[in-house]
Amino acid sequence: EVQKHSVHTLVFRSLKRTHDMFVSDNAKPIPLDEERQVLQLMAVKLRTEYGSVLHMPTLKENLREKGGPNTGDPYGHKQYSGNQGQELDYMITGTHPYPPGPGVALTADTKVQRMPSESAAQSLAVALPASQSRMDANRTAAGVGDIYRHAGISERSQPPGMSAAMVEAGGNKNTALMAKKAPTMPKPQWHPPWKLYRVISGHLGWVRCIAVEPGNQWFVTGSADRTIKIWDLASGKLKLSLTGHISTVRGVIVSARSPYLFSCGEDKQVKCWDLEYNKVIRHYHGHLSAVYGLDLHPTIDVLVTCSRDSTARIWDVRTKASVHTLSGHTNAVATVKCQAAEPQIITGSHDTTIRLWDLVAGKTRVTLTNHKKSVRAVVLHPRHYTFASGSPDNIKQWKFPDGNFIQNLSGHNAIINTLAVNSDGVLVSGADNGTMHLWDWRTGYNFQRVHAAVQPGSLDSESGIFACVFDQSESRLLTAEADKTIKVYKEDDTATEETHPVSWKPEIIKRKRF
């Protein structure tokens, strides 16, 4: 009868057997083939130290008189020739000692410093191809005087495959081997600094979202106090409050095609408000969790929303039907943008990826995985076919339609909640710690940093920018903040390039892909 043992016992028995089998060989050195090791070491040294010149001709001057190809090569190394099968019987000795081949020590013959002889110059002229040597009698080959003049520049002559012009210049290959100058950042365009000129109060909670209507007469904000407020843009006075959401309002947008306002919130609701009656006329049901953002398609009646349920949904504005559910993200989708050109939908997610979507098929075209942390903000440039994404690691710029990487904008070391850009190329990034950085879009130069004081009565910890947007004239910048206020910035009209110079240095660009 076979005795049954536990797995633990069997494993240890197997280990013991294995140990007993190999214990006699334990710590024994592996026998080395000394000759093979020497050859391997020499081959490695040849490749690492002389790899760049192995293709060059290595036969000495007056080779036939000295007797045989291996003269002066005690190791019998293979001669590395640039033109296999052609007889290369020249090497012009320069003004410095030069070994006859890679890895070969100097001999009594090569230790002598001497200028090239006339016979060496003649052999070089004969070895040149006919097509080059007969092109022009005046520049057939370098004369003895030329070789003397350029002797210190390059000791070896070029193989026959090289151009006559190179030989004329003394065979100088230094220009080709020179390191290219590293690219430097171009001088950024000068932008006037932006200054705070108005603080608007009225909300009773964090102001989470903001949008300016197409006519540039008023703007709308959504807040953690569950209300939507409409403000006069010129005076900053409250015009209207809309109630209906039962949790924080996370997104608002005004339609340019109809008198509708769309809003979404953490109550999973997406609402359409008729601004002629100031009432909700449509609900869009389908999201399973908080709805974090929304955007309207510029040319068709389509609404796109993104949610904490890891999806984005495309809605028909009129019929309220869910046209597509864009699945693929593995964490909350924080931001969504639409454009008329392909790809028509762009989403950024807490799973650190950005996805470019095919609107018709409802599928991902491209997934960008370069960010290391959550992507909470995406902005499209109004004129260029490019966009930017914001994450705590850095801001990245991309090129449509395939999401080709352009550059990193590093320096805003905070959780970036929002991005905005205008036609002049001013990019604004707003962060969770209340700081706002302004960048030159083209060069990525950070020309201004702003940290506005919090509203009196608020805690310092309530310093955060949740959303920012330029008005339609792009002369005003509005920010929605954690101290329950809306701050309005404008360009400093008195500033000039002399009073506020660009403190820019043409530093070397360090473009990291990741």
Automatic annotation (TrEMBL):
The keyword Secreted does not apply. The keyword Coiled coil does not apply. GO terms for biological process: mRNA splicing, via spliceosome. It holds the Pfam family WD40. Belongs to the WD repeat PRL1/PRL2 family. Identified in the spliceosome C complex. Component of the PRP19-CDC5L splicing complex composed of a core complex comprising a homotetramer of PRPF19, CDC5L, PLRG1 and BCAS2, and at least three less stably associated proteins CTNNBL1, CWC15 and HSPA8. Interacts (via its WD40 repeat domain) directly with CDC5L (via its C-terminal); the interaction is required for mRNA splicing but not for spliceosome assembly. Component of the minor spliceosome, which splices U12-type introns. Within this complex, interacts with CRIPT. Also interacts directly in the complex with BCAS2 and PRPF19. This is Pleiotropic regulator 1. It comes from Himantopus himantopus (Black-winged stilt). The lineage of its organism: Eukaryota, Metazoa, Chordata, Craniata, Vertebrata. The gene is Plrg1.
